Amino acid sequence: MLWPNQKIICLVESTTYCNSKCPQCSRTNPDGLGFSGICELKHVTLDEWIEGYAKSYNEIESFHFSGQWGDCFMNPEIEDIFTHITENSECHISFSTNGSLRDPDFFWRIGVKNRGRISGTFDVDGWTQENHQLYRVNTDLEKIKENAESFATTDNSTKIFTVVFKHNQDDIKDIENWAKSIGAEHELMQSNRFWGGTKSTYTYQGVEYTLEQTTDTNISNDFENQRIVRDHRHTDIKRIGVKCSWGLESKVYVDEHLNVWPCCYWHIRASKHSEWETSKLFHKFTAELKGGEYSLKKYTLKEILEKRFYKKDLENSFSAEPAWMCTRTCGILNDQ
Hints:
about 325 residues, alpha/beta, globular
C-alpha cells in the first residue's frame, strides 16, 4: 500500500525564484544561464501558507523546503512561515539551500527560534570559488561557509551537500574535513544529469564551459536505488517493475500553487515534455489537478490522499501502464 503512514512528509515549493544559475537545473537555460521559463515565478505568501497548510498540520510529520524550482530563502516571508509552523504544529522543518542568500545573523536566528525542530543542508560544490562556481554559478563560497557555520552553532542538525563532478572530486576531502570541524555531516552525490554521455556544456557571459562526470570510481559506481535508472549508463537495461519510493515512504510534493503531487518527478514531467508522456493516468491526473482536485486550498491533505488516484489508480498503473517517469525514476532493474 502506498502512503501507509498516518503522517506525511511534504516536500514543498515555497518559491520559484532562485539566485543560483546551476547549468544542469531545469529552470536554467544552458545557453546563457537565463531562466528557462519552466514555471511561473511566484512566492507562496504567509497568508497562502496558512490557508493551505494549517488545516493539515496534524496530518504532516515534516516539511522539507527542497528547492526544486527555487531557493526557499528567496521568499521574503520564509522566516514567518517557519515560525507559524513551529508555533502551531509539531511538524519538523528541513531546508536545502545554496547558502549564498541572507547572512549569518539570519541563519543563527532561525536556528535559535526553531531549535530542535529544524535542520539545514547547505550546498558546497568545491573548495575554491573557481571550482565551486563551475556548477553552482552566481553563488559565493565564503558566504555559504559563513552561513553554514552560523547555523551549525545553534546545535541543529547541519549537513553539507556536494554534487560531485570531475572538476571538484579532488576537493572532497577538504570539504569533508571542514564539515566535520563545524559539526556537520557531509553528503556526496554524483551528478545524475548527464543524460547522453559523460560531458555537458553551457555558456555564461559569452564563455563556454564543460562539466564532466566524476571519474572517481568510489563515487561513480555508488548509486542509490532510485537514482540508478536515471544514469545514462543504465539506459538500455530492462526494467521489470516499479517500486514507488515516495509512496512507500509516505512523501508527497506540493507545488507553489499548493497542488499535491505523488512526487517531484511527476511535477517535472508535467512542466517539461508532458506531450511525450503516453500514460493515460498521467494526463487524467494533471487534468484533474488543473481543476483543483488535488489542491490544499480546497481539501485537507488527508482528503486528497483518500482520493481514488492515491488510494488505487497509481499503484494499479505500475503493472498495467506505468507513467514514463515512474519507470525511469523508480523502475526496478533486472540485475538488481
